[in-house]
Amino acid sequence: MSDLAGVSSTLLYAAFIFYLVGTFLFGGSIRQKGLRDDERLNRWGIFAITATIIGFIAQLGYFFTRWAAAGHAPVSNLFEFITFFGMMVVGAFILIFFIYKTAILGLFALPIAVIIIAYASMFPREISPLIPALQSDWLHIHVTTAAAGQGILAISFIAGIIYLVKNIDQSVSTKKTKWLEVIMFTILSVVGFIIVTTSFGLANYSASFEYVNKEEASAVQEFTLPALVGPNEGVLVTEGKMEPFVDMPAFINANKLNTVLWSLATGTLLYLLIRLLFKKRVAALMQPLVRNVSSDLLDEISYRSVLIGFPVFTLGALIFAMIWAQIAWTRFWGWDPKEVWALITFLFYAAFLHLRLSKGWHGERSAWLSVVGFGIIMFNTVAVNLVIAGLHSYA
Amino acid sequence: MGKVKCECGHVNPHGTILCESCGRALTEEAKKENLVDMRYEGSARRSQTYNKTIIDKVWNFFSSVKVGIWVIVLILVAASFGTILPQEFYIPGNIPPETYYEDVYGTFGKIYYMIGFHDLYNSVWFIALIAALGVSLVIASLDRVVPLYRALKTQRVDRHESFMKKQRLFAEQQAVLQESDLQKVREELKKKRYKIREVNGALFAEKNRFTRWGPYVNHAGLIIFLFGAMLRSVQGMYVDELLWIREGETLQIPGAGGDYYIKNDGFTLENYEEGEDPEVFNEAIDRVGTVAKNYQTDAVLYRNSNNDLPGAEPELKKVLEDDIQVNQPMKFNSFAVYQTSFREDEMKAMHFALTNKTTGEEVGDVVIDLFDQQKSYDLGNGYKVELKGYYPDFDGFTKEGEPISKSPLPNKPAFLFNMISPEKPEGEVSFVEIQNTMEPLGETIYKMKFKNLETRDVSALTIRKDLTLPILVIGGIIFMIGVIQGSYWNHRRIWIREKGGYIYTAGHTNKNWHGLKREIDSVLDGTAIPEPKDRQKD
Ligand code: HEM
What we know:
The complex is a heterodimer of chains A (about 400) and B (about 550).
Chain A: H1 2-31, H2 43-70, H3 78-100, H4 103-120, H5 138-167, H6 175-202, E1 207-212, E2 218-223, E3 229-230, E4 235-236, E5 246-247, H7 254-278, H8 282-286, H9 295-328, H10 337-357, H11 364-386
Parallel strand pairs in A: 3-5
Antiparallel strand pairs in A: 1-2, 1-4
Helix pairs in contact in A: 1-2, 1-4, 2-3, 3-4, 3-5, 4-5, 5-9, 5-11, 6-7, 9-10, 10-11
Chain B: E1 4-5, E2 11-12, H1 28-32, H2 46-49, H3 54-63, H4 65-81, H5 97-114, H6 124-154, H7 161-165, E3 169-174, H8 179-191, E4 195-199, E5 202-207, H9 214-231, E6 238-246, E7 250-252, E8 260-271, H10 282-288, E9 292-304, E10 316-325, E11 330-332, E12 335-356, E13 362-369, E14 376-380, E15 383-391, E16 394-397, E17 403-405, E18 414-420, E19 428-433, E20 436-438, E21 446-466, H11 469-487, E22 492-499, E23 502-509, H12 513-524, E24 533-534
Antiparallel strand pairs in B: 1-2, 3-23, 3-24, 4-5, 5-22, 6-21, 7-8, 8-9, 9-10, 11-12, 12-13, 12-21, 14-15, 15-18, 16-17, 18-19, 19-20, 22-23
Helix pairs in contact in B: 3-6, 4-6, 6-9, 9-11
The complex binds protoporphyrin IX containing FE (HEM).
Pfam families (chain B): ResB
Protein name (chain B): Cytochrome C biogenesis protein
Subcellular location (chain B): Membrane
């Protein structure tokens, strides 16, 4: 049994490598001239998509071997779910790629998927047994469909961001260039999170604090990063570790906030490093890469992805979710934060689709909307789980 | 109201912008435009035509997509506010919300509570927003679907060239249509599943018109869903009850009109165990500690056949036996009984031995059922224990020295015994609580020695009936059909026509112009018919 689990991790690792290779190949493929609208793919492009598909198959292999090892679909904890989401982004990219044959999409979609999967790996990776509420076929029906919908909607974001990188005038500093930099900085902060977590993980850093929790009981919290902020009335019990600068009130989870602070700090460092090295905005740095692609086509890809993804998302994240909630929690709807955020995502994309009906909401504005939409999806996938504890919060 | 007659002879409803039949512009503005606005085929929509009475104004307000979007966005933003702090129904039940929010979240929590965000989703204004969404959906859909249907039904094959010239995809070329080219085009179009109509040397190909009804179908589904959700508040449609039931107890099922009783035949809580469960779980069990595997109530359902006879004792007939687990509710009629919660090891009975303190001799055992005590327990041979007082949830003494009980639940039972023995026929008084015995009226010869405790689990079952579910299911299915219908196909039309020595080609789709453009190009490839250009490209 555990051999299977081993094979599974190897396959995930392989998928990860293939996605990285795919990214570079896509980079090569857009360097060549051409590839406006409907020109054919070049050799690089063919290699790139092949690597992507092999990676995707490897990840499917990871998914099903892990399923076999665990006896349940591996979508039951944060690591498994986010990894699966990464896989769905790649799957959705492959789907859209075959409709529009645009290599540039791969150059952005694959790194995003790579970051998502790396991010997922920062959470406990062991195979967890299912608590009673999760013991249902609806677990994999609901979660996989919802993640597939989110993956397809993520492609809308990717087309949108390429649109913005291409079309926003970088010769002057405006609100738009600033917001675009905020997006880049956010992505760098996620990379920052991966870097610090991995580094201190390798160094086996661990510091325990005794503190007073929300229920005014004494509790222990373990920090795997040096504590910049400590828990409520926290006392460091591990010797020789860093003392926090300030303590947080009880209703804030200091450990999580600390991780966020570290990620932002590392992200800032990375961002400043790039700015100093290249003396350009990050988006300006990327602009030459996307020069060749048609803005109109990007706009259509972005819209089309929403059209394809919206029904899938609705089915998975609302309808299947309601069916399961009726069975597991006795009511199909209970205004649990995760439910509410799925509804918000749904409403947001409904608004997006209706805005497309009116003039003036194509192109750039639509691209900004697709970015916001993805922001909402990530908020629901990551932040609601970590910050707002509800019925859904995983271990 | 006056109808509008077009030069082509077709009579259009008042307010029509483009002739339903030939496509000529009928209004001055439309004549001036470079590209026609094809969204609703230039049909006569009520909202664009009338604006006099109050009804017109309300209609126009709600039929506007802009208003619809505002409503959606307002609901979205409002809904997000409700997730900042937990809603009232998720906070611990034993703390009043008035103090909870302030205690836990400080001033922010107090404000949150004061403006009513702790129960946002039931607030009047939030429900009003949902109602506005419903109204907007109905009006906006009706305003568009009827004229759109008419226009698409009446459209002619040979559109006026002014109509074609103002399409987004358009080309004209001085040439004559060759039959061989046309034949090739027909074949290609058929392969791509177009429906072809030809009149007077004009060709019109159309496919997937049904996709245009998608939005209306999905809106109808949404309305049915909202209607179903509204029915929730109608008497008898909805039951939501919580039943705490101890092992061995048989209780009436609340909300079922006294027809049904349920017995708890035992509650089980299982955890995952290393060694027993698959090895792959060991690591997780090690890290987290205990992981629950199963919560289960073995239940028996009874029907009370005497329920119709007023005053009669219930006569219970077994209906079914079921293990209620999470995700596997017991179902009967339109009810479902769910495993919701539990409390383990509630005290059930205490065993004592009446014991001589000096010799240690045990005279006899006394078992006190905490839910059903006797006044006295006769042990024979002149030994007897009287229960003078029972304090199930003992919480100290009053100033006068009276013991108090906090609640009727046996959380911390205490007893006042009078121990009667041949030596002390009047009895000796002893006050016994767990791990502590007092002799308030002087030292005693005998004592009540604690032997052991019987416990049992209490299971919480949710009783649910929801007759609105079928309506919601139908609404949901219709909604899904509608979104899929509207999203996964495009309504595409191609016009080819020769007039006055020119060939005109034009194309229209409701979305995804690249796809249409590519399709037309491949259809016209290798013919002398001009490929239309996209005139709205940046
Ligand atoms: C949450 C609520 C809503 C959902 C989920 C929803 C969903 C949709 C969808 C999926 C489409 C098709 C869009 C496309 O194919 O591009 C659509 C179209 C449309 N919706 Fe909604 N809608 C909602 C509320 C509303 C409201 C409140 C209005 C009122 C103004 C409205 C008016 C329209 C109109 C006018 C169309 C276009 C119809 C056409 O193209 O013929 N919708 N809606």
